[in-house]
Amino acid sequence: MAEWAHGRSRLPAYLALLRGQARSQASYRTSFVVDLVSNVGATVLDVLTVLVLFRVTRELGGFDRTEAMVMVGLSSAAFATADLAVGNVDGLRQYVRTGLFDAVLVRPLGALPQLLLMDLPLRKTSRAVFGIGVLVVALATAELSWTPARVALAVLTPLAGVVFFGAIFVATASLSFWWIDSGEVGAAFTYGGRDFTTYPMTVYSGWFRAVFAYGMGFGFVAYYPALALLGRADPLGLPQWVGWVAPAVALPVAAVAATVWRLGVRHYRSTGS
Amino acid sequence: MGSVTATVAPPIGRNIIPWFRTFAAITGSGFRRYSTYRQATVAGAFTNTVFGFLRCYVLLAVAAGAGGVAAGYSPAQLATFVWVGQGLLAVVLLWRWTDLADRIRTGEVASDLLRPVHPVVSYLATDLGRAGYALLTRFLPPVLTGLLFFDLVLPSRWQTVPLFVLSVGLAVVICFGCRFLVNATAYWLYDARGAMILWTLSSGVLAGLYFPLRFLPDWAAVPLWLATPFPSLLQTPLDVLVERDGAGIQAGMVGVQVLWAGLILLACRRVQRRAERKLVVQGG
Amino acid sequence: MTALPPDAPVIEARDLRKEFVVRVRAGRFRRTKRVVGAVDGIDLTVRRGEMIGYIGPNGAGKSTTLKMMTGVLSPSSGEVRVCGLPPVAQRVRLALRIGVVFGQRSQLWWDLPLRDSFDLLRHVYRVPAAEHAARLRRCRAELDLDGFLDIPVRQLSLGQRMRGELTAALLHGPEVLFLDEPTIGLDLVSRQAVRAFLAELGATGDTTLVLTTHDLADIERLCRRLVVIDHGRVVHDGSIEALHARYGSRRRVVADLEEPLAEPPVLPGAPLLRVEADGRRLVFACESATASEVVAGLARLVALRDIAIEEPDIEDVVARLYRAPAPTPAPTPAPAGDVAQGCSITSTAKVPGASAS
User: Which of B86, B278, C196, C307 is the residue whose CA sits 20 to 30 A from A216?
Assistant: First the structure.
């Protein structure tokens, strides 16, 4: 993409956008506090939901609470961080609808980085920090037998998850280039994907599990890496090394998302709005 | 549905028939307005259905892990709870209603005062029209999907269906009232975003969307039920439908809803009166 | 930067077309696709320093053309180059060399004061600090920004915001400035401030200016060259005078009389258009007679209290153009030299001391 070509010389420009965003948000002091609190609240609720479920049952899909919490931690650390970095791309719909995307296109910067930096929801930082905290606590209480390989896996997996969820955010948001009223459809795959990865995959079944886990790749974000970390065999029968493929899944998904985005921008240019 | 609300709306006494006609006309316009958002309707129904699968599988796994029955729900009851809940979500419309807050922010709200209909009544009538449209378009897709892929329960008591219908109507009114109050904070605050976020955050979990509130210990569930309107938004109609409790408690829960509907509408009227005084005295 | 030869066109469009596919409801659920030509074969050559008024009725294709020139939309067919660059393929490079003010689509940071937006734009456009400061100083003085530089944009009036937008579009010293409806919705004072500023900017001859507008006063004040577009085609390209000549619009002489006349005078080559004010005011059209001939003729025949010469009303002409059923092919684009004169036209010019008693 030609737009990315002189990336480095544009760094100050992108930093300027980021500064502008930070200043803009600071200008709403009261809302900023509310946002900060409520964003941690959202992740607290996600975790609380899992804990409530384990009040009713001792095991979920063949996993006990500490084991399930490893999946919760991997999922929420990756999702919350991706949401912080890329999640605001779902504002694209508004840009397309109101024509503000025109203003993005007449600036001498890449369209996607602009969109991300101009609205970067710094308030979601707290959420990402909390998500990572959940992961750390979950890993600590799971009493894993740590090996260097597992440490690497525990670091690599959330990073791959961030890329993966980020790609899902971009791909689903790009939908609005073709379908402005796509409304909540994106949420089915972003927040839906988060929900899917929060629980052991064994709770789902049939074609639904196949589509989400293998078709779209959500199975490799938290479930299989968690199995590898816990040293448990997959009840569904895949070998242990599958726990390591998260990066290999995330990168092609990111490439697909980038292509969808580019096609979307081209489509926007050819239809206008 | 109109008759349900006519009993709790401000009494107009002498001119009940023309008043009712006006109300019905506004309701009709609400129905028509939302029927123009066709694509958003399709998108929303799709998303509700995907979340239906996700939540249904998880709750079924909970029941399986708990040895078949979870917090008094059989697997079929849980599946019904989830799928009907996904359908009702759009009917009661927990989230994404900012009409009033937007009108307050732009100042258009002043023109509401020029109409011969009380603003709360007018917004309520519009919302009932919206709910009616959602009932046709957003309620059925998830429920039918659920029927297709999972075992659901059918009501066994004669009174369950009428009670459920009444309960859904009350849930719409209560939810409208809550949204109205949340939006109305925009009269006094710079923007209603903070209140709206807190509402979005708490309403989902406290209404029983993420898990049935019976999963909570009694010391949390009972006060929640009686002292807050949240369970009346989703949990009550769903518990009524799946017959989680005996006939007495089933009817009693709807009774609690009636109380909440009255309280909330009174609160709306009060808030509106104060807001109008503020508008008139301070000029917005 | 690729330097263009000084006489090379800054904008060049050849047979530029843009078609949109619209879905039309046919029956209750069925929708059929229809292709609509928003821009239907536009040829345009703009040279450095020109000020072009681009006008047309709603939906004529003005904004679509501007969007194709700025890299926002890609043409369906035909070719367009701005500063020698194809706009869509070289969007980012082109963006550094043009300035854009798109009516409601703000370039400014909504929650920040103008001062901060300007500072951020310096980095976004990578403008050397000294250049930036010099341009900002000029804009501050000429657009009178100092009173509201520190107020968040969201709290500015439309007029103040538009002055901010103009500054934002100019801080990187663009070669071409595209303005889509720059005066729409502005109060009279702001409108005049914006016009005066643009006139000044155009007078230096460094910046090429392309503006679309509904307000013909903008055109009369600013643009020597007028491009009228209708149904996606150019129906006139030339000076305002050429437009008047072509559509037979004429100056008018308005005479206020001392006494009402029973029998209005007959002047050769200047038919009487109307009689107003109970016969105290006569309006003549200058057909073959010049305005001074009409005035002289009148002064001989009647006692004049006052006299005024009204310039032809461009709105009438344009309204007539829009109503024309089929767009006629455009006459040859006027070369720059041809339209250089006759810039400022005031709508009424009182003739002083023209009262004879």
Answer: B86
Whether residues C107 and A103 touch (CB distance < 8 A) is answered with: yes
3-state SS assignment for residue B257: helix
Predicted local confidence at residue B69, as pLDDT: 93
C105 touches chain A (CB under 8 A): yes
The span from the CA of C14 to the CA of A116, in Å, is 36
Q: How far apart are CA B160 and CA A89, in angstroms?
A: 45
Interface test with B, best of A57, A168, A179, A211 (most B CBs within 10 A): A57
Q: Which of A42, A202, A208 sits opposite B53 (nearest CB)?
A: A208
Q: State which H helix or E strand residue C259 sits in.
A: none
> Cα-flanking dihedrals φ and ψ of residue C9, to 5°?
-65, 140
Question: Is the domain C9-246 a CATH 3.40.50.300 member?
Answer: yes
Q: Per-residue DSSP letters for A123-191?
A: GGHHHHHHHHHHHHHHHHHTT----HHHHHHHHHHHHHHHHHHHHHHHHHHHHHHH-GGGTTHHHHHHH
Q: Point out which residues pair with A63 in neighbouring strands.
A: A60
**Nearest residue of C to residue A19 by CA position?**
C120
Instruction: Please give the pLDDT value at position C59.
Output: 77
ipTM: 0.91
Q: How far is A264 from chain C (nearest CA, A)?
A: 13
Residues 6+ apart with CB under 8 A from B31: B129, B130, B132, B133
Q: What is the Cα–Cα distance from C140 to C137, expressed in whole angstroms?
A: 5
Look at residue C300 and tell me whether its pLDDT is greater than 90: no
Chain A contact for C355, CB < 8 A?
Answer: no
Residues A108-133 have pLDDT tens digits of 889 999 888 877 777 778 889 999 99
Q: How far is CA C247 from CA C215, C235, C314, in A?
A: 20, 12, 10
CA C174 vs CA A203, A265, C101, C106, C133: distances in Å: 60, 25, 12, 17, 15
Q: What's the CA gap between A79 and A128, in Å, rounded?
A: 8
Q: Which two tokens stand for residue C82?
A: 């701005």
Q: Is C20 on the interface with A (CB under 8 A)?
A: yes
Nearest to C123 among A12, A23, A100 (CB): A12
> From CA B182, how far away is CA B192, in angstroms rounded?
7
Burial string for A180-191 (b: 16+ CB within 10 Å, else e) reads: bbbbbbbbbbbb
Q: What is the DSSP string of B166-223?
A: HHHHHHHHHHHHHHHHHHHGGGTSS-THHHHHHHHHHHHHHTTSSS-GGGS-HHHHHH
Q: Is B201 on the interface with A (CB under 8 A)?
A: yes
Minimum CA–CA partner of B206 in chain A: A45
* Percent helix / strand / coil, chain A, rounded to 5: 80, 0, 20
Q: CA of A194 to nearest chain B CA: how many angstroms apart?
A: 10
Q: Do B194 and A58 touch (CB under 8 A)?
A: no
Triad C304, C308, C313: Cα angle to 5°? 150
Please check whether residue C41 is in contact with residue C73, taking contact to mean a CB–CB distance below 8 angstroms: no
Q: How many domains does chain B have?
A: 1
* Distance (Å) from the alpha carbon of C235 to chain A's nearest alpha carbon: 24
Nearest CA among C137, C185, C141 for reference residue C161: C185
Neighbours of C271 (CB within 10 A): 13
Which residue(s) pair with C237 in the sheet? C227
> 0.90 exceeded by the pTM?
no
Query: A225 to each of A77, A152, A154, A220, A246, how far by Cα in Å?
Result: 14, 11, 8, 7, 8
Range of the domain at B183: 2-282
Is residue A18 very low, low, confident or very high in pLDDT (cuts 50, 70, 90)?
confident
Do residue A49 and residue B210 have CB atoms under 8 angstroms apart?
A: yes
* Spans of all domains in chain C: 9-246, 250-311
Interhelix angle A148-178/A246-271, nearest 10 degrees: 20
